[in-house]
Target: Pyrroline-5-carboxylate reductase family protein
Amino acid sequence: MKLGVIGVGHLAVSMLDGIVRAGHAPSGILLSPRGRGLDLAQERGFALAADNAQIVADCDLVLLAVRPNDAPDAVRGLGWREGQILLSACAGVPIAALGAAPARIMRIMPITASKLGASPTLAYPDLPEARSLLEAIGSTIALGSEDAFEAATVSAAMYGWAQALIRTGADWTAAQGIDAADARQLVARTFTAAGRMIAEEDAPMGDILGQLCTPGGLTRQGLDHLEAEGVPEAWEGACDAILARLRG
Ligand SMILES: NC(=O)c1ccc[n+]([C@@H]2O[C@H](COP(=O)([O-])OP(=O)(O)OC[C@H]3O[C@@H](n4cnc5c(N)ncnc54)[C@H](OP(=O)(O)O)[C@@H]3O)[C@@H](O)[C@H]2O)c1
Model:
């Protein structure tokens, strides 16, 4: 399916990096001229549309990655056709707010690790025609309802919070006199390892963590400190606040 992109900003550029990295030719992807569209066409050989209507006229799969408030206006009245798919990455924008009939609408929530082919992208509904695009940027987790999708998209914010934690750990390690580049790699790869153990082992998460937390041990002592400082509740509170805003 020919891909077009409306809204060529931070997210779309990371997705385009991943799509090209997976072997798709930039010349076959049509970009809207705003944002980074013109630069990417001139510097990297993507095709450039005159306007959004040309994207809808020429493409079967259209990625929408404008800021949420801009989304309804960006898709309205563009001449959508039967058989097309509008792939909306806009956080908190329900399908009902996007007037793209008779095109089908699929909501996705990728993260910028798309550029590495490592985005665990959420999707609703699961339309098979979009699968190869999502596989180019990583893996897909399909949800069974739009409500469940909305709740799960809080994970895209957790991605940023995890990066903030990694930075805290890396800065602390460097402050102990460790080379800053080594500290960054050490802490980042430790988080990657923690994620892989949870993602790839079948044992209950409590058992995996339990193996690290021997009574009186260092990991247990640190977890007790974090729990006493209210870290789990603060994390849950942040999730609740983001979801309330998404449902807003
Ligand atoms: N950033 C992330 O990591 C991330 C992750 C998941 C989902 N998202 C979602 O992705 C969307 C984009 O986020 P972003 O961070 O990439 O924003 P961004 O960097 O601000 O990019 C948005 C782009 O959309 C362009 N635009 C606005 N209205 C347009 C229109 N009518 N036609 C064509 N282009 C238009 C803007 O161009 P101008 O500069 O000319 O206004 C800008 O280049 C948001 O809805 C967000 O919820 C982002």
Summary: The mean pLDDT is 97. Residues 27 and 46 are 5 Å apart (CA to CA). DSSP finds eleven helices and eight strands in the chain.
